[in-house]
Write a structure and sequence with these properties.
64% of the residues lie in helices and 0% in strands. The protein is built from 13 helices and no strands.
């Protein structure tokens, strides 16, 4: 008896065939890439790509560089420099956004506490004075400000080498710097009358929402898994997320 292996091509789902028939204009793809490079803060790449793709820059290179410079200060924990740069370039942002100012000052307090906990004598006087003069008056204006300040001050009581409560340990993680840097980036973009989120992120969010509605509410037949259509395997994407960065969309 002779055995044979089937070489029949799997039948594609009707939805998949329809998707493959859609021809997205290259100009639309290029516009999405330029938008990503601009909003995410890649000034040199944005300038080069806009030139090569024959697209009008969404922002001057200098404006993107200013945003990136401030974000780098925050990522390095140099909050005083970030505040100074913000006040010099965009003075009205912090004047009109109490929550953003408090987030920056709170992060500065975290950095001061980190420094004092790492010093041999653990001198907390600088952190205490900063909390009393800069954050204390603001904390009384909103309950959430007071709660955040009290939680941050708890770091003075528990040394960093102890098993901290997860909510306290999170204050010392790089993710807090990233969150505040993202808030500042969005505030600057809003001040500049620019999109606060990349268009590709909004499209992905819309796609996820529409798939959920179609499956659960419309009860339409869809493939079990619908790929986003990005090149690269899942392992690469997982590694990027684990490192605290979102994968960059390239040509």
């Amino acid at each position: 008896m002779t055995s044979s292996t089937s070489t029949a091509t799997p039948v594609k789902h009707a939805f998949t065939r329809q998707v493959e028939e859609v021809q997205t204009p290259k100009s639309d793809i290029n516009a999405l890439i330029l938008d990503y490079l601009t909003v995410a803060g890649y000034p040199n790449a944005a300038a080069k790509f806009s030139s090569e793709a024959n697209l009008q820059p969404q922002q001057p290179t200098s404006a993107i560089q200013q945003r990136v410079r401030i974000q780098k200060f925050i990522h390095r924990g140099e909050i005083e420099d970030a505040l100074q740069a913000l006040n010099e370039i965009y003075p009205s942002i912090l004047d009109n956004d109490d929550s953003l100012l408090f987030a920056l000052l709170r992060l500065q307090l975290v950095e001061l506490i980190r420094d004092c906990n790492n010093s041999p004598d653990r001198d907390i006087s600088t952190a205490l004075k900063f909390a009393q003069t800069k954050l204390g008056p603001k904390a009384t204006t909103k309950p959430e400000f007071l709660e955040d300040l009290e939680k941050t001050m708890s770091l003075l009581v528990f040394p960093q080498d102890d098993d901290l409560d997860p909510s306290l340990a999170a204050l010392l993680q790089p993710s807090l710097r990233r969150d505040v840097a993202d808030q500042v980036n969005q505030a600057i973009l809003d001040h500049q009358k620019q999109r606060k989120e990349t268009a590709i992120r909004q499209l992905v969010q819309m796609r996820v929402w529409s798939e959920e509605v179609t499956r659960k509410e419309k009860k339409k037949d869809l493939p079990e898994v619908i790929e986003l259509g990005f090149d690269g395997d899942d392992a690469d994407r997982h590694d990027s997320i684990q490192n605290g960065h979102e994968p960059m969309i390239t040509t």
